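Task 17 of the worksheet. Students: predict the tertiary structure of the chain below and write it out as structure tokens. Keep your answer in the requested format; marks are given for formatting as well as content.
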Amino acid sequence: MDLELPEELRLLQSSVRKFVDETLAPHEKEVEEKDEISRSLIAAMGESGLFGIGHDEKWGGQGFGKLGYCVAVEQAGRVNASFWNVVGATSGLCGTAIELGGPDAVRERYLPDLFSGKKVGAYALSEPGAGSDAGSLKTQAKRDGDAYVIDGAKTFITNAPIAEVFVIFANTDPSKGNKGITAFVVERGTKGLEIGKNDEKMGLHGSTTAQLYFHSMRVPGSQRVGDEGQGFKIALGTLDMGRLGLAAHSVGIAQRLLDASAQYAKSRVQFGKPIATNQAIQWMLADAATEIHAARLMVYDAAARADKGERITQRAAMAKLFATEMLGRVADNAVQVHGGMGYMRELWVERAYRDARITRIYEGTSEVQRMVIAGALLENT
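Model answer:
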């Protein structure tokens, strides 16, 4: 088994790393303080190809497959998490849902702009009463001639305040439960679409989220993604890729935290010697390095299997569960290694600690991932 990345992905890895370090990193504190990412930076990410990595060239993507996608996401994860959140919600969720569901007319209409970063996308699945239980959506889409009339609400929708394109999930036949869920593409400015104010969050400042409200919003049938009743299947397929991307992102930021901790431990002197000579510090670093290595292999394995056409629901859940839980431990220990400075806002480690907490919640909590893993295990034994 060859675990070495092919040359083209090593080149991708280095080019994304260079772009992140030179173009995005200088703005990460500014993004945190202003709680917004400028359109010029979003445009720069689009021009760099970040939005299209891992997506089919037929629809305006960069190719590289899901392994290439994860390699790139890991490098993007080394900077303020909000940068990747904009990309992830646009192409990783909104774009993937359209790519999976089709039809071609809808793909042609939206994917080139989403995969180039010319338009920002959002993925509207969660509701006030249906977060982890995505099959219990209350938003309804009633057929009216050649259109649908949608009423309901969505919550915690990443990019909602700035998005031009939304993929929205609604139930066209509540009597069928999740088999009645259908997906639609809705553009900003559609009559009946109300976008709430930007949520105030613990972390991820710069990544905007808001509630959506639908007031008898009329959507043409030509804006449907997939057939009626396929929405839940599309949502789950999209979340497989989203969870894999989030796992890769967690590996990237964990690696940066480990590198910073090791460097600080060698330079911080207490009791006449660097704290890196203390076994307690060494064990923190060793555990972090081991878990990061394991998480990276889990991500690459799942991505490579996805590129072969395998279903990766269980492996994506495993990678997401392990990598995000790992990140929580690494971030906590990074603050501990940095001591009082790790608690100060002037150091990026404090922000990374806050940003890391959400990874165990969104795109399926750790508890939901365990349910997915156990469900697949019990089904196959």
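Marker's comment: The mean pLDDT is 95. The longest strand covers residues 147-158.
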